[in-house]
User: Fold this.
Amino acid sequence: MDIIVCVKHVPETAEADVAIAEDGKSIKTTELVYDINEWDDYAAEEAVLLRDKLGGSVTAITVGSEEADSTLRKCLARGADRAIRLTDEAFEGSDSYVTAKILSKVIKNLPFDLILTGAQASDDGCAQVGVVLAELLGIPHATMVKKLEPKDGIVKVNQELEGGLEEIMELKLPAMLAIQTGINEPRYISIMGIRKAMKKELKVLGLKDIGLTEEEVGESGSWIIVEKMFVPSVEKEAEILTGGVDEIATKITETLKTRGLI
Amino acid sequence: MDFNLTEEQRAIKKAAREFSEKELTPELAVEFDQREEFPFELYKKAAKLGFTSMRFPEKYGGQGYGVLEDCLVTEEMCRVDPGLGVAVMLGTLMFPDGLLMFGTEEQKQRYIPPLCTGEKICAAAFSEPAHGSDITRMDTTAKKHGAEWILSGNKEFITNAPVADFFCVLCQTDTEVSPSHKGESLFAVEKGTPGLEVTKLQGKMGIKPCVTGSLALSDAAIPEANLIGELNKGFYYALDLFNGTRIAVAAEAVGMAQGAFERALRYSKERKQFGSPIIQFQGVSFKLAEMAIKIETARLITYKAAWLYDQGKMDPMTTAMAKAYASKVAMDVTDQAIQIHGGYGYLAEYHVERFHRCAKITEIYEGTTEIQKLTISRYLLKRILA
Amino acid sequence: MKELLVLAEHRQGDLRDITFEMLTKGRELSQALNADLTVLLLGHNVKGIAKKLTDRAKRVLVVDDERLRNFNAEGYQRVLSHLLSERKPLLTLVGHTAFGVDLAPSLAAELDIPLATDCINLGFEGEKLVVFRQVYEGKVNVRASLRKSESYIVTLRPATFEIEEVKPLGGEIVEIPSPPSLSDDMSYKRFIEYYQPPAGDVDITAADIIVAVGRGIRDVENVPVVEKLAKAFGGVLACSRPIVDKGWLPSDRQVGASGKTVKPKLYLAVGISGQFQHISGMRSSDLIIAINKDSKAPIFRTADYGVVEDLFKVVPALTDRILEEKG
Ligand SMILES: Cc1cc2nc3c(=O)[nH]c(=O)nc-3n(C[C@H](O)[C@H](O)[C@H](O)COP(=O)(O)OP(=O)(O)OC[C@H]3O[C@@H](n4cnc5c(N)ncnc54)[C@H](O)[C@@H]3O)c2cc1C
Ligand SMILES: Cc1cc2nc3c(=O)[nH]c(=O)nc-3n(C[C@H](O)[C@H](O)[C@H](O)COP(=O)(O)OP(=O)(O)OC[C@H]3O[C@@H](n4cnc5c(N)ncnc54)[C@H](O)[C@@H]3O)c2cc1C
Assistant:
């Protein structure tokens, strides 16, 4: 089974201070730590687990600048066989649609049975790339995949719906599956893995190599263009309880008492 | 000249950071700091991922990297927790290095692979009750008896002694020769050897999960083949070995300083007094600036010492400078980190006091700061006279 | 006249809330644009549902087909691409739900209609469609515009728009036949069955007091710290998704879009950042208190009271205080 896994290099923002950059259209990134998108981490792990079980190969692909190599190396260290990075100045300002277009141009020339992506990226939260990619390649897709079993040209998947309900589907291979967290337990990157990763192929391709014009990528090829980023105004803000830990505990207790909750 | 880590080194650092941050949790750190026990499970996990065998060749199950990559891992682990970090990274302390430099192929094959996998732990026994900084004479003796060596004497302050499977032991093999250091030899001793007794030492100031103990050898018989390298070369071997491990201690110190610094920086932005975060007071922000300067310079000299070592240009003076300086920085920075935390810094639950207690060891083991200065001044003396 | 389409979402015989939420926004937009608001309903034997929708829209288009019985992005896409090409609605609204995420991007790509997903607001400024979205884990908002086009698709974030009380409009139901393309080979993706993971021993939806733990807890071994607090309150322990993903708590304890929706008297969120998928499952709680060390965590935009502190300090102190109070 030949598997392609699409991954994204994103800043970790859950616990970091996030500030808007000078251009007003992006965030300040210098102090942020970047890593593989959480959902993609599960997708990459799933790809390697499948390959180990069924044989074949795993190719990790990203659209990104040179820094994104570390995310590709991480995939290689986890067990992917080769990696491709797609980069070009012209890609600047691309949205998810263009990202999918770029990926499709490269992937269509590769042999594959399965494409895995994360269900969404933690930075833009668009949840589009995988599904658009599937459409551009003319293959079936499923999103929020929590379980998958490929067999005889078909893959059976559990697709997560709201409220914990799941939907079991069958798709003809080749297919694209967008992976939801919790499908596996991504392993730690080992030193042995890094050692091997450095010897594996990491190909870098640009606009010319993939057969798209400048108009088809970047802002001009995009559906959506960012005009402004800003820290959300707070319609409602919690009343912050301050003081020492014991003081806070007392304040909470008093509040709950007046409401008859204790 | 290039101050950047390579892509591979950055990947190593990142992997070590990810592992440390997820596994060396503050709760585990406090627990083992209280229990004073070796974290076996953590050690095995780290070993399986290759973190504890960075500098050993692939041929013996190691990762085939150098001292610099080893330092990167040590630094990351000690940054997250100094006690657990040191415990994990010292599980494969010195013994494999000794075998790699001076041992026979059989010795390497026998001892190094199970250390790399984390099944085994080793120790290096030089210090004695009466000989610490000065190991030019050993009271522990090894006498040839047929095809065996018979070892007798006491070793004190031996890292991992209570949990180690293999020991390398420095003994006096020629008690007559003058100077006496020309009569010392290094031996491989296995746990369970009749006549070998181990006692655990309790009540250390810091690095408590990195257990320490003493050895009592009473007519412990080991095979002839357990002599490491040549007879009566042990003292010189020890010096060579220290030149590697001292760099690792410097890396421990840099990591500890970095960890305490980050905690202090975070706290100084959160803690408000007189209506503003305390980092707004120059008295605090200048402290942080000085801490940052110290850490950066300590890291640079540590990497330089490691780089020289890996280039085959090991320089005892740079190594001694790195160890002396980084350990001093660790003490200063962890001290200031407590100061920035005020009264809270004095409490275990704010963790910086543990960093400070742990940092102290870096000024002591693998040659005290004074001994490093002795080395440096000897070189200086030579340089002036030349 | 311009048309604004809302794609109704339903499952197992019931309309989903998102449908009504989209209609709230849809109605507002259609008034501003002076456009027709049409609901599009695909399914099989959906008369009852269609009837309900006539309360809220003047026109309900129904495509009733055995092959549309269960949601299948492929079948839906064939019908929709046909309808959208034919009717050229100015805007089609779809829910940013498991259903919408599976459907909207491929539909948009097939027709090359500009798409914006997971929007929390939108409006036309002249010809320009402007949308608002959240990025970087809820810490930053984006204002973005879509490429000029005669048609747009937007997916709306669930639980963002209110469900309006309405006077029934008594709209008309228009049945339209399924397009021929629906008969084409459909074996690419096939629905087999729904699967409801077995219920556990605790029903968090029935609890008056919920203490929920998030990734801030760092390690499974620390979960008891928060569990003790839940016990002290006489409440139940619930959690955010990563806790279930890691296997630290069973899935029936998860609160949020893909977990349970709860409305307790007290919801105490501990070490939870407050992503919308979590918020949508607890926002209707009577009283919400959040403990998080990051003062910028989005959870503080939903909570009534907040504590910006290390949970490992606050939670034990609070537990002791509560136990003391209870004697
Ligand atoms: C936790 C811990 C773990 C250890 N692990 C190991 C281990 O695994 N293996 C091992 O062999 N040893 C180990 N040691 C021992 C350690 O290496 C020695 O403690 C150290 O070398 C100092 O020796 P000493 O304690 O005998 O002090 P001393 O040598 O008695 O020194 C006392 C003081 O005198 C100073 N001093 C001594 N000589 C001079 C001089 N010439 N000029 C100026 N000042 C001088 C010293 O710097 C020190 O300040 C460990 C020690 C500790 C505390
Ligand atoms: C389709 C889909 C469905 C989803 N469904 C759900 C769902 O049903 N429920 C759900 O919860 N999520 C759901 N998610 C996931 C959601 O997007 C978030 O990833 C998740 O809610 C984050 O959980 P968290 O807040 O616990 O973790 P994080 O976002 O990592 O936040 C952890 C928080 O803990 C704080 N913290 C850390 N240490 C401490 C400390 N010592 N003291 C105090 N605070 C601390 C941090 O500041 C941070 O704010 C879904 C995602 C998708 C794509």
